[in-house]
Write a structure and sequence with these properties.
five-stranded mixed beta sheet; disordered C terminus; alpha+beta
């Protein structure tokens, strides 16, 4: 299992990447206590650069494929601004087809069930946010143990380049559907922005009860405050049960090359 100290280090790494050199000295100088983590969580929540996603239905393979396609389609300035806002994303319930004439979506899934806006500073004032309801916090539906997501089509893709392999491990225990959307979205989007994943990547998603360090090494971990720390004292460092406890909800592991694209 991961120790709490290791998870705090991973959380600090993500914050450092988001700050991109701004005020990282102050971050390094302060221990990540429960109080400090609460401050950092408030900082992330107050970020204004936001992406809005409208979902008519949820299908895990199309969702992951679309997150990658969306992140890969963003120009670098928008990627960087969004990363500094901790890739803040709001998920709403709606039918993108009914909204396309009124709203300018940056990316739409291949089946039309999901659509993304470009990152902007509207935050909670977004017209879509005022019009639609938040995606419901329902229980996580049954998910396949393993999903293959093909490399995303892109005009930048070299058909002769080797395909890279990546594995995403997503936790399903004590995770709602809304939580799952957020965790997977953060890891995949930030992996694209930080160049861990590109258009030549083939992704395998593993749905697991909890992350096992033996499945790594992990190149990226999604670490969050454990909202129900007393519910599961068996993983992620039982030495720190209670307030301030962290939990790893998703992890990305990169592998070698698979084969050339054809």
């Amino acid at each position: 299992m991961f120790t709490q100290q290791f998870l705090r280090t991973q959380l600090a790494s993500r914050i450092r990447a988001a700050r991109a050199g701004h005020d990282t000295e102050a971050l390094d100088a302060q221990p990540l206590t429960a109080e400090r983590m609460a401050e950092l969580a408030a900082e992330a929540t107050s970020a204004t650069t936001t992406v809005t996603v409208v979902l008519r239905r949820f299908e895990p393979r199309i969702y992951a494929e679309s997150v990658l396609g969306y992140a890969l389609s963003l120009p670098d300035p928008l990627r960087e601004a969004w990363l500094r806002a901790y890739t803040r994303t709001v998920f709403l319930t709606g039918n993108p087809a009914n909204l396309a004439t009124r709203f300018d979506f940056h990316h739409t899934s291949r089946d039309g069930s999901m659509a993304w806006t470009a990152p902007d500073d509207s935050g909670e004032r977004s017209p879509l946010r005022r019009l639609l309801r938040l995606f419901p916090t329902a229980g996580l539906p049954a998910l396949p143990a393993r999903l293959e997501v093909s490399a995303t089509a892109s005009p930048e893709r070299d058909p002769h380049a080797p395909v890279r392999r990546a594995r995403l491990y997503a936790v399903t225990t004590r995770v709602s559907l809304a939580d799952y959307l957020v965790h997977v979205h953060h890891v995949l989007a930030e992996a694209v922005i930080t160049k861990l994943i590109d258009e030549h990547t083939r992704l395998t998603i593993h749905h697991v009860p909890q992350l096992d360090p033996s499945d790594g090494p992990f190149d990226m971990l999604r670490v969050v405050p454990d909202a129900d720390a007393d519910a599961d004292a068996s993983g992620d460092g039982p030495e720190a049960a209670g307030p301030g406890r962290l939990r790893a909800c998703a992890g990305l592991s990169l592998g070698g090359e698979v084969r050339a694209l054809t």
